[in-house]
Amino acid sequence: LFRAKAAVIIGDPKQLRHISAIQPRRDRELLYKHGLADGYANWAYSENSVFDLASPMAGRDDIIMLRDHHRSHGDIIEFSNRHFYEGRLRIATKYERLRRPALDEPSVRWLNVSGIVTRPGSGALNEMEAQAVLAEIERLGIQQGYQGTVGVVTPFRAQANRIRDLVNSHPQAAILLQQLNLLVDTVHKFQGDERDVIIFSPVISKNIPDGALGFLKKTGNLFNVAITRARAALIVVGDIGAAKTLGVAYLSAFADYIETHTNNRQLDGGIEINLGPEYPAVAKPELVSDWERLFYRKLWEVGIHPIPQYAEEKFLLDFAVHVDGRKLNIEVDGERYHRSWNGELLRRDQLRNMRMIELGWDVMRFWVYQLRDDMPSCIERVKNWINH
Predict the structure, then answer these.
(1) pLDDT tens profile 99-138
(2) Would the CA dihedral through 167, 173, 177, 179 be positive or negative?
């Protein structure tokens, strides 16, 4: 650093901290030995990383967040985006490159398995959960013949060792290990790595030791790393009831997220879903404007029944309409979030329109002032599309 005119420090404080091989006591002894104890104590590597030192030195304008996320399916990264990154990430994943195990399966699933947690010397082990993880690996690799890569990640070394032993003793272990490029390990091993499918084994269940539970409560960053290793699918194998009730905040929130996501998956293909004349409850009510609610009611009054917040790839459509195999995406745009400085539709929305058309959708966008000033003409445009 002394040889640099300027320095850029890159890191993510929401993921794993650095691992120091030097003990804090030895660190302090070295500081005293070299006359650095006064004024330089925060340079002790056992306690602070370079990122820890640099972040308070940088001014607000000197901190740049790399917001575009390119790895994971939107349903996978969305939880981390909300829970760890304050919703600031922009999902830029190219979905055509994702190797999903099955298009009719959700990208985030929770397989509910209880079991009893034991303590094999140190850490924690859930035998029933480990067996269920093996069964899921077998389903993917042997029954389904999945050609993507798979990883199994867990917070506890004992659980990782047990799952690895089960895989290695399987009669078709070679297929599971080689075809799936299978990696089974703790979170630290996966830092910087990724797999098409990640199976997460949280271990938390009945009789979990207080020490193991305390470890989980303090390691939200490890969980963030674990689930964001997945590109196409994330499968949690564990006790969803324990996750929601034993006081691990991020696991409880994630269990709720998966349940909400599962309950709000919409039917596709020209099936009309009758949701009623009032705008229904949706997964992300904070994204719904008053104009969307009004437009929904007005469309309903003329016999048009749109589906709000319809999920398509990484996008959440304001409204979807299905008619005789044709699909219409309706967007309600406010100038604050959708118009650029020169009065044009933002580039990200133009790119989104192009992708929706590639996926077989017609796209119809309305500025809020159009709904405000001439609602009948807006409704007529939708009717004309239906009758076309």
Answers:
(1) 999 877 888 999 999 899 999 877 899 999 999 999 999 9
(2) negative
What is the C-alpha separation between 45 and 294, in angstroms, rounded? 57
3-state secondary structure of 249: helix
Total residues belonging to the chain: 388
285: how many CB neighbours lie within 10 A of its CB?
9
Q: Cα–Cα distance between 344 and 346 in angstroms, integer? A: 6
**Contact residues for 368 (Cβ-Cβ < 8 A; gap 6+):** 289, 291, 332, 333, 334, 335
Distance (Å, rounded) from C-alpha 232 to C-alpha 106?
10
Q: What is the pTM of this model?
A: 0.70
6-47 pLDDT, tens digit each: 889 998 888 877 878 888 899 989 999 998 888 888 888 888
SS3 306: coil
Question: How far apart are alpha carbons 104 and 97 in whole angstroms?
Answer: 17
Which amino acid is located at 267 in the chain? L
Contact assessment for residue 233 and residue 267, using Cβ atoms and an 8 Å cutoff: no
Q: 351-370: buried (b, 16+ CB within 10 Å) or exposed (e) per residue?
A: ebbebbeeeebebeebbbeb
Nearest to 241 by CA among 226, 252, 230: 252
User: How many helices (DSSP H) and strands (DSSP E) are in the chain?
Assistant: 16, 13
Q: Spell out the residues 6+ positions from residue 94 whose beta carbon is closer than 8 angstroms to its own.
A: 70
pLDDT of residue 262: 66
Shortest CA distance to 271 belongs to which of 308, 324, 311, 319?
324
What is the distance between the alpha carbons of residues 296 and 315, in angstroms, rounded to a whole number?
Answer: 19
Interatomic CA distance for residues 13 and 76, integer angstroms: 20
Q: Is 285 helix (H, G, I), strand (E, B) or coil?
A: helix
What separation, in Å, do the N-terminal and C-terminal C-alpha atoms of the chain show? 66
Instruction: Name the 3-class secondary structure at 179.
Output: helix
DSSP state for residue 330 in the 8-state scheme: E
d(CA 163, CA 161): 6
Name all contacts of 315-318 with Cβ < 8 Å and 24+ positions apart.
Answer: 315/74, 315/352, 315/355, 315/356, 316/284, 316/287, 318/292
